[in-house]
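Take the subject:
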Amino acid sequence: MKLALLLFAACAWAQIASDLENRAPVVIYKTEPEYTENARQAKLEGAVVLYVEIGVGGQARNFRVVRSLGRGLDEKAIECVRQWRFDPALKDGKPIPARATVEVNFRLKPNLH
């Protein structure tokens, strides 16, 4: 019984160590997007979805719009994500470039006047 518990504990620890050595990029700093005046006047809300590459330095690059909102919000989403920082993806404990899908949400704040 003790051997089975030790074997289970060793397997669990190996999985945890593997998860730490191999993982997707993680957002560590995030800014909120700015609205364009055109989108604000149209009361446009929703999400822009971007496909990006996260470099080993933790910055997003090579942007591609997967889902567009238009009215300048796609560009604002890219500007926003350029400011984000990521812990890069890891493979065998070493940082590697990785592709990721990022969603940038646009929500109007209620007018409290």
About this structure: The helical segments are 2-21, 37-41, 73-83. Confidence is low (pLDDT under 50) at residues 2-10. The domain at 24-106 is CATH 3.30.2420.10 (TolA/TonB C-terminal domain).
